[in-house]
Amino acid sequence: MKNITAKSNKICLLSPYYGTFPNYFHIWIESAAKNTNIDFYIISDSEFNYQLYNNIFLIKRPLTAIKNKIEQITGFQIHLEKPYKLCDYRPAYGLIFDDIIANYDYWGWCDPDIIWGNLNILLTNDILNNFDVIGGCGQLTIMKNTYDLNHYFFYQNKNIQSFSFLEACKTKRNLIFDEWGAPEIRRKLNIKTTSLYEWLFTKALDIIPPSYTTQNRPYPLMIRFNSFPILVEYEDGHIWGYSIVNNEIIKKEYAYCHLQKRKIDIYLKVTNHFIIFNELFLPIEMKDICIKKLKETKSTLLNKGRSTNRNKFNRFIPFLREAKISLFFRSLRLIGYKKIFPYEKK
């Protein structure tokens, strides 16, 4: 484990993870290492047999230590029985991991199911200078390291639809505070945050999770809110997406590819240049064959009636369903049912 010392980089990303790492996590590390202007911290007590690089750090810290730190911050007992509950505590990482972020101008969180491209596509000087929070989603969010931004999540207002941070602390249920509660608070407090649409749907490849479809594996990689399948190419710290539009191949560079809980089978001898297609990591030599297959896949999906509008609607429903229970309870409270809240039974 490397020591936490003063860093030359301005930005750090935190990735607490407990359990078995994704089978392609070595590619996460290698692609993260290409973003030499950002430091990445993996916080875990899981078995770790991966090579680290100059900007990749492993912090050995059990989940119980994080729970104790949150209780020290809040002053009461909180729920953190399962690692996935950490999603509710992400906005508090600036306080939870204050020993790590102390020497950075910006800190953020990120998921382990990402292949990184060139993050400078997102983190331009203009963006860094004009926004307090960059991103605002669960997979990747970055914010300025200031006292106010490290404490804003404590804000409470009964007129905000989503649950507060303190309410999220008191239930085992994941209330998706990082993606629903915290953004609502930022809007209420007029904290300058980049457009989520601009971030997710134009500069990042946010692949639809497999639970959003009923097809068996391997299933085509589909971008959220779009009707077309995509092929992903990675080469030495850069990611391109290939899609078929009006029977033409469109190539575009993206900042990263979020694979969203997908199991991706690996058939690679080298990891510096490859493609991702239909839930497979494949050698770059198969690119032309897979692009041909990409055209056939789109044609098949269109023949099955997968129109753009239908896909947008159908894929958004499960996204809402994930949070509907939390919003339902909150809505009941707002109209007068003050005792409605999913506290755990004692």
Q: What topology does this entry show?
A:
Layout: E1 11-16, H1 25-33, E2 38-44, E3 56-60, H2 63-74, H3 86-89, H4 93-96, H5 98-101, E4 106-110, E5 114-116, H6 125-130, E6 133-134, E7 140-144, H7 165-169, H8 177-188, H9 196-202, E8 205-206, E9 231-235, E10 238-245, E11 248-254, E12 256-258, E13 265-266, E14 273-277, E15 280-283, H10 287-303, H11 308-334
Parallel strand pairs: 1-2, 1-4, 2-3, 8-12, 13-15
Antiparallel strand pairs: 4-7, 5-12, 6-7, 9-10, 9-14, 10-11, 14-15
Approximate helicity band: 25-40%
- Number of strand elements: 15
Shape: globular
CA radius of gyration:
21 Å
Quaternary organization: single chain
Secondary structure category: alpha/beta
Distance between the termini: 40 Å
Number of helices: 11
Largest sheet: 6 strands, mixed
Mean pLDDT: 84
Indicate the low-confidence ranges by residue numbers.
1-6, 305-323, 336-346
Reading the helices and strands in chain order gives EHEEHHHHEEHEEHHHEEEEEEEEHH
Read across the widest sheet, the strand sequence of neighbours is: 3-2-1-4-7-6
Report the sheet-strand fraction.
15-25%
Can you describe this structure?
There is one protein chain. By secondary structure, this protein is α/β, with parallel strands linked by helices. It contains eleven helices and 15 strands. The strands form three sheets. It has a six-stranded mixed sheet with strand order 3-2-1-4-7-6.
